[in-house]
Amino acid sequence: MGSNETWITEVTLLGFQVDPVLEFFLFGIFLLFYILTMMGNATILGLIWLDPRLHSPMYFFLSHLSIIDMSYASSTVPKMLANLVMQKKTITFGPCILQTFLYLAFAVTECMVLVVMSYDRYVAICHPLQYTIIMNWRVCTALVTTCWVFSFLLALVHIALILRLPFCGPQTINHFFCQIMSVFKLACADTRLNRVVLFAGSVCVLVGPLCLVLVSYTRILFAILRIQSGDGRRKAFSTCSSHLCVVGLFFGSAIVMYMAPKSSHSQGQRKVLSLFYSLFNPMLNPLIYSLRNAEVKGALRRVLWKRRAV
Q: Which of 40-49, 203-212, 216-225 has the highest mean pLDDT?
């Protein structure tokens, strides 16, 4: 670097760049959504923990999805809320990189867990007699551990490539958190390698897993259509449609965000997309699973009945 270039120590997050009055309105709306996200996912976790009928592989994976959603939202939303009501909208460089690492790690983990959940449904519906053998607790634990370890290692690769770059400005990020593509713009060096690795990683964790999910659900659909019992068919459709809604929301917004051509979306649209998969998706997931899942609704009724009885 030249002698007139200095390492940045603090970054300004421009956020949504709206009128101050509207910022307070957005703060109230986003705070409500964040509270609903935490309460909804915590309720799912509590029900799975308290109700023995939900101690099965499917709900074991769902509990991890709830943990991921709570962590994912918490990695970006609190700082966004603080910046909406504070005059100084800054973040130091270290926490900025940590935020990038955490949201990448949790996003990839969610992709992997959704794939594992689709595999679980495939085994349950297409090979019901062998389900308990194939999806035993050792296999379930190994699958979940692999998801977490792989995701954090992949995020670590991205962060290692980022930290090799010299950062000398500009000192502003046109986003509400340290989104990785916005962090690239802070570097005063060539970031082509970073962008290539990010695109390759996006293909691996978005396109590949989405193809696996679609293959699983194509086979599941044919298996469901062969079910003779009307109740069995409705139950299978209810469970699988819940999972497909979550998959569609998450993968759709993430693919548009990371794999669409750079010029196809304005920065404002990218902020909305980021908000969608970092706040709205984690809030919607427990609603989708509770409203469309008879077992979850039954568990909630049983827990409330026990509390009334006490």
A: 40-49
